[in-house]
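Translate sequence into structure tokens.
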Amino acid sequence: MADVKTAAATPSAPQGNRAGQPKNSNNFVTNLIVVVVCLVVGYIVWKFVLGSPSNFADGETRQKSNNIMGTMYQGGPIVPILLATALTLICFIIERALTVFRAKGKVASGEFVRKVQYHLANKNIDAALAECDKQAGSVGNVMRAGLVKYRDMVNNTQLDTEQKVLSIQKEIEEATALELPMLEKNLVFLSTIASSATLLGLFGTVTGMIRAFQAMNQAGAPDAAALAGGISEALINTALGIGTSFLAVIAYNFYTTIIDGITFGIDESGFTLTQGFAANYK
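Result follows.
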């Protein structure tokens, strides 16, 4: 009996490793490409859109801005980095939306679990599997894996009930281990941007203020208008940083709330299967 368990468990680990390594590598390369592209686009926007001569009263000199776009250009070399950070944030917000809402499924997890409980109470495993296909989310995927093992254990005459329940539980845990990384992937970008964008904006503000005061010092006489202009240019960095951090915090909390709901549904589905089997097949 112990030999049977070992043989069943041995192939699963290598398969998971073989499947996981290429995905992690591809994910890193894809994320790197996204970040680099956003940096390039951010620089192009800063240099050619915000820095367009039409945004300045003195044209190519780019000293007197006509509008907010010209003022943003005068914010300095940190502005394109902040623009790239905002673009990166938007990319990962969209990517997470596509993944998380698909993982949420077409049927609410609570309603789905109740339907599966009803079918299991009537010992209709095929109907329960059909509900998993209708749910089409992470909860449904985990439930389907557990139900397949559930059906195998019903026909198994070698193991006792406790061993069968443990086998179902193990299958659910393995399926969960495959689903959760997909849900949490790239959330680190949102959390990192949420904490770093404000600091980056403040860094741009400080460097802008340094340039403004240096210009005044070189002029030899206080110039209130020049100082005010320098401060407004420097604060552009703070505004971009705070705005980006705000969006990142909202997006991160929004997605983690949805993921927590999905995780709860997965836990509930696992409890339903194990308890249902123990009750129906004593």
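Note: Confidence is low (pLDDT under 50) at residues 1-22.
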